[in-house]
Design goal:
Two copies of one chain form a homodimer.
Chain A lengths: L13 H20 L2 H8 L3 H8 L2 H24 L6 H18 L3 H11 L1 H7 L2 H6 L2 H9 L7 H20 L1 H8 L3 H24 L16
Helix pairs in contact in A: 1-2, 1-4, 1-6, 4-5, 5-12, 6-7, 10-12
The structure holds a DNA duplex (18 and 18 nucleotides).
Chain lengths: 224, 224
DNA sequence: GTCTATATTTAGATAGAC
DNA sequence: GTCTATCTAAATATAGAC
């Protein structure tokens, strides 16, 4: 509390070292699986300093998780509300942005999804994800692209799920895919770079194919 | 060890009650997040009985995880080696089977993927996933369908990742999707049933679109 | 087989010297 | 701000009565 921003930025402050280590260990092992001692070791600092700087394991986790969610979702907001790009351009931007992010931090999706599973209301609500997505400009563009009237909202959601899945799933499944296909980290990464070109094509072909409204359960009547 | 199979199958034996409870709690909270007390409570039995029957938390977990992996992957093996079904039929079978399984146990994918992340070699190796997939009949069918020669193996993997992702990702993302789109469990489930018809269509359109080999990083030279 | 009581181990947090 | 030593709480595991 009485702590101010460090004046010099030579090498990372102890506080910063701990945060960096915490991010890494929490992402790898999850909250329950992480020992505070692991974080201290990873940071190369004394265990007692964690409590000195962050009060408790839980507070440290909340801090990291908040920052992580922000990193993951904030860039999205500007992108999906940009009124100057076409749907196709947005898909390409989206793809580039997320694949680059996830190549640098592959554990991000499973980390976030685990947290949301443990605590569904908590953080997703704080990010106002529902409002952000529902009120977005991209949603209008999606509707127009699909022909507006006769396609139910559930069809839209199905498409969006596929798009997010194509970007995110390979990283969630990374350890499994590496095993199944005997991939090195380099090969996996090269494949993810390829995806920057491929995902927009797959999206395109998904949208250009005619969709039969009868495929969708209309009774449930989902309204966005 | 000295324990034999129960003769009568009236109501679940204590051992079975514990296993069932363990499955449920481990799937929901993960290994580290689970307290043995939670399992005992969930099963409605005394805590000491867990150790009486299963020796330790870890042994109980290994047992559950082994069974879970078997459930998830064994049905796959017969299906992908069936020489009497076309690729299209396989895709439909695959879809039906996995969506039904996952609707009844939505936590399965994230549970398994978490475990593999914590312990990548361990269980996936015991299931021989690499051998099973590489030697499968379906892989030949995929190659034929794609025109055999000029498509690199990495393209095949990309496709397979998409297929698995379309089936599995919605369940991994379920808590997040429910938040974003304000879905009830019933609505989510109805959408997953819709997917039984939709996924094969999307796969079809993905395959029927011409693929340009230049989209793939050939240098990495992945060979299955 | 099941229970109560307890031992053991592990992990988060803090006091107090420097 | 940092460290050592220690406290406390929680969770796993077991001993022994029934």
């Amino acid at each position: 509390m009485s702590k101010k921003i460090e004046i010099s930025e030579k090498d990372p402050s102890t506080e910063e070292k701990i945060k960096e280590a915490a991010r890494k260990v929490f992402q790898k092992k999850g909250y329950a699986g992480t020992r505070t001692r692991d974080i201290a070791d990873e940071a190369g600092v004394n265990l007692a300093l964690l409590n000195y700087y962050f009060r408790s394991k839980e507070k440290l986790f909340d801090l990291i998780m908040g920052e992580t969610m922000l990193l993951f979702f904030q860039s999205l907001k500007a992108l999906i509300n940009n009124e100057n790009t076409s749907l196709q351009e947005k898909m390409q931007d989206f793809t580039n942005q997320y694949i680059d992010l996830l190549i640098s931090q592959p554990q991000l999706p499973i980390f976030i999804l685990n947290e949301i599973q443990m605590n569904p209301k908590g953080l997703s609500e704080r990010m106002c994800l529902h409002q952000v997505v529902i009120g977005s400009y991209i949603l209008k563009q999606f509707r127009e692209d699909l022909g507006n009237n006769d396609i139910p909202d559930s069809a839209l959601i199905q498409m969006i799920v596929n798009i997010i899945g194509m970007l995110v799933f390979p990283f969630i499944g990374k350890p499994l895919l590496k095993e199944i296909f005997n991939l090195t980290d380099e090969q996996f990464q090269a494949m993810m770079y390829d995806r920057k070109k491929l995902v927009p094509l797959w999206i395109e072909s998904m949208f250009s194919n005619p969709i039969n409204p009868s495929y969708f359960t209309l009774i449930q009547n989902i309204k966005l």
